[in-house]
Amino acid sequence: MTDVLSRTVRNCPLIDNHAHNLLRPEFLDLEPFESITTEAEGSALKHTFTSLPHLRARKQLRQLYGCKHTADWEDILKRRAELLQHEPDALWKKCFHGTYAILMDDGLGAPEKVHPFSWHDRLTEAPTKRILRIEAVAEHIIQDLLCNASERNLEAPEFLIDTWALFTDRLEAEIMTATKDPDVIAFKSVVCYRTGLDVEPDYNECLLNIGKPFEHYIVRCIRKRKFRIQRKIVNDFVVLKLLEIISEQAPYGQLTKPVQFHTGLGDADISLLRSNPAFLQPLIEQYPNIPFVLLHSAYPYTREAGWLSTVYKNCFLDLGLVFPMVSRDGQISILHQALEVVPGSKLLYSTDGHWFPETFWLANMQFREALEVVLLANVNSGLLDIFEAITLAMDILFNNSNTLYDLQYQVDLQDRVRSLPQALTLQPKLRKESFRVNIMDRFLKKHASIKFVYVQWLDYMGTMRMRVLPVASFEHLVRSDGRIGISLGHTGTLQNDEMTPTVNKIDQIYVEPDLSTLRRCHNKDPLSAAMVLGFWRDCDGNPVKKCPRTGLQTIVDSLSVRYAISLFISFKIEATLLRRTNDANDPFEPITTTHAWSTLSSEQWLAIPLLAEIAENLSDLDIGVQQFHAKAGRGQFEFVLEPLPPLAAIDALIQARLVIHQIASTHNLRATLYPSPLPGIRTAAHAHISMTPTYDELRFWVGGVLNHIDALCAITMPEEVSYRRAVDNQWTGGTWVSWGTQNCETPLRRVDKGRWEVRCIDGMANMYLAVSAILGAGLLGLMYAQSTEDLPRDCSSNPSQLSAEQLKSYNIHKKMPVDIREAHRALEDDTDLREALPAPFTADYLAMKKVELKLLADMTEENRRVWMIERY
Prior knowledge:
By secondary structure, this protein is an alpha/beta fold. It has 32 helices and 23 strands. The protein folds into three domains: 307 residues, Alpha-Beta Barrel (TIM Barrel), CATH 3.20.20.140; 110 residues, Glutamine synthetase, N-terminal domain (Ubiquitin-like (UB roll)), CATH 3.10.20; 317 residues, 2-Layer Sandwich (Creatine Kinase, Chain A, domain 2).
């Protein structure tokens, strides 16, 4: 059950409740990039390269940039410069993946050096909101008032009095304007950096003592032209003036806009002793209608800040800055300390990202990782149940900031997490608010005539297995958080239930319906029924590594979390429609013989009602069909499905195939995916996979997928007949390990930027396993980051018609496997790919396929063809 929590933590949209502007491109070199993991400056900065935060960030930046795992700091900087020069938008998009909104303190950098806060709207789903830094406002007012002042002005007795009056009037006006500005959602003070957090809590007392300090401050401004406020009483006054004004503006009993305070961690400017948030206790008490947000985890005073956030209703703790400024163990310890006493509703998250987009990316990645570790520990120890942990994660990442800052974002977080795609289907027993129960209730209310539910799962051989439950039994199963127990041994049997060495008759797996796949059956089904696909779980409800759907989702999650890569897949279903005959020697014949690609002969025209019936039923099941048309073979047609995230795309594919088979059966036809059902007919199952961002696509597809393609064929082309389909000069992907833009004679066709077609794949494959292997190979390409100069080049010709010298010019050196046995050997030898896939998968799969090979080899060729057509 913990996989649901992990997916939520990794993918829930977040509100970054405190960050700063990015530098404009021309000023990027003014700040040392190594400062992203430290508050050290100057000569102290040179030691950061040996710190744990830096070493960890270096490793993660290699992933972000697609560098080799051996890349040193100079290599990383070089790669970063290339990305900033050629694809800055893609890098920004990757760094801000998952960020819904940013609340920005734009008072850190000089306006001419940073992008304005509104510029950052392009990076997030919601517009950037502004946090008004009160010290910056006060200093700007003074600078404006004294722009033409000189020491001669100081001689006039009324000058200081007038300056004070103008200063306080304008400060009050600026604050009043900000309270009404919808773009300003909070205020901030950096008094911690100036004179410390021990602010005088009595406003009147501060006024009595401000005369001389203010005079000294003004004299210094005029003589040195330095306007930074660094006199305690003056600093205290600015803070108190803000608190006084906004507390008076709020209606009785309502909270004001929050005020953020820098606390704890900072550079050498700060007095660490006076950065303890405990000093703020009198202020928090004095202004109970003002929400105080204690920034930066108050590290190293997290426990003190936690106590304040616990005992004062108007105090909140921000969990920021320590990501990525503190080691992984330190971050986990800080989260544990924060959760010791602080209610989950009082915790907020921020990156404190500034200058560089990578600061946001590192903070988000590291915070999600630490939060997952801490919440899982609490769940595993029994202190939290899954529902409580998921709620806590969503509150910290999104809900608490949305509420505190009155942002009023209307986002269904559970739906968003599920649609990434994630199978958020597990909740505690008998919870009325259970996400699964809600889905089921809505579905059954919409389809009240449903009497039965097919609970389905696909085994390693691509055989659909299922149980039929009366709807009352299905409802009970879901409401009680139940599952269907089956013998573990059934995961190791062949299409005819013949046993293999992988059969284990001792244990069980439990099929758990994934209600994101719940669909009404087509209108020709003999039952008034629905269908739903399932995950495999153990007796405690935890994921089973052998589960094809779980294995795929694990790899998709890894690409999303580690590389911010999102994927969409569109499948083409090629099916040959066969009519049964009375000829025992040739029991099938195609429904059309006058047939060619994308034609509509008289025979084909007569088949149109059947094809339309299939398309209409798929549409009724919310399976989008973009088009259908005739293929080149007799009786062969193709349905193109809409692109969806990987797991959802394959779920739709499996259910769509079932509909095609069944609708055809009602017309006494057999729809088959068999790669060579009749002489001259070649049937594939091409997959179009789109990835964003696109700047690492060559490393993913050429350095990863193509580099492992011979081993992949053992899974994507799983039968001996598969290799009769893939030949040269027949538009079937050819026999050379190569790729090309719009080249149908290569096994990998680059359709467009970021969109690739895998052509060495057919309908015999378990598509969950096939896509897992493809994405796993792509993941290896990103991890090892081979130089693109060493990879096969974009081939603009038919490789089979090139000379040896021409092949060499494209870096084409290897041929595809000639048969299934060669593909099996390649998979056995490819230890990297095997390790990238779920641990028990490849060994079990290969053992089962060897038994299947023997089973099929004992048949005559015609019997084997019929046997497979009846099953695929």
